[in-house]
Design goal:
Shape: elongated
CATH architecture of the largest domain: 3-Layer(aba) Sandwich
Number of helices: 12
Largest sheet: 5 strands, parallel
CATH class of the largest domain: Alpha Beta
Low-confidence stretches: none
Structural class: alpha/beta
Distance between the termini: 64 Å
Order of helices and strands: HHHHHEHEHHEHEHHEH
Mean pLDDT: 92
Radius of gyration: 23 Å
Number of domains: 2
């Protein structure tokens, strides 16, 4: 047994390695055929690799919290079409290299929906990266200083789905607008985006301080996109009122 387990370890078959003795006992008890036993331990290995892959991709996704679509209160935000969100949750938009743009005031659930869709995508095997716009642009700008710009740029280009949170909360300086345009242009029709923003499209010129730049970015982002406008109240304001009422 020890010799077999050593070989399993050498071959990196950790799913079979961990369960071998229990599976042998089960096979004897149930009088499994060789083929049934082989199928059983291969399923253990497959499940183990799937779980390991999910854990690694979840860690690399940098999601700020665990938010599920199932926990989103659609009754509080009736402007959000549940069927549209369910369609997004199939992740077909990633396969088609389309984008999702979530527009709404602060606290309306944009980030919750973005993370919820990302969780679905992780379960389907996609590589995800979540970042605020300001954090990404800070990293890219820092990369120009230490000659790691293209390495950092590649970091934002590799994932199947890049989530850019909080576009519009700060006006971007000119050099940052250029970096944002670079990411959008390079991902155009090659990788999907989810963008959350508190600014309607006609205000994007205010974000980038350049209407021409804003138009070029919009053209690429909106061309293949699902636009979800949230017109409801803030969840955070609701929670504050509830706490105040209880107090």
């Amino acid at each position: 047994m020890q010799s077999v387990k050593m070989k399993l370890k050498d071959f990196k078959l950790s799913g079979i390695y961990r369960n071998l003795e229990e599976r042998l006992s089960y096979a004897r008890e149930k009088s499994l055929s060789y083929l049934d036993f082989l199928t059983l331990i291969l399923e253990d290995e497959q499940n183990n690799r799937r779980e390991n892959s999910y854990r690694k991709r979840y860690s690399k996704a940098k999601l700020p919290a665990q938010k599920l679509i199932e926990d989103f209160d659609f009754s509080f935000q009736p402007s959000v079409d549940k069927r549209t969100i369910n369609d997004c949750s199939t992740c077909q938009f990633i396969t088609s290299r389309r984008n999702i743009i979530l527009i709404g005031n602060p606290g309306t659930g944009k980030t919750h929906l973005a993370i919820g869709i990302a969780m679905k995508a992780l379960l389907k095997g996609y590589k995800i990266l979540f970042t605020s716009v300001s954090q990404m642009l800070h990293q890219l700008n820092f990369g120009r200083a230490d000659n790691s710009y293209y390495q950092k740029l590649d970091y934002y280009l590799k994932p199947d789905l890049l989530i850019l949170d909080e576009l519009g909360f700060k006006k971007l300086p000119g050099y940052s607008a250029d970096d944002f345009f670079e990411v959008i242009t390079r991902r155009y029709e090659t990788g999907s985006l989810i963008i959350t923003t508190n600014k309607p499209f006609d205000k994007w010129g205010d974000i980038f301080t350049d209407n021409t730049m804003a138009s070029a970015i919009l053209d690429r982002v909106v061309h293949h996109s699902i636009v979800i406008q949230i017109n409801g109240p803030s969840y955070r304001a609701k929670d504050l009122k509830t706490k105040g009422g209880e107090a």
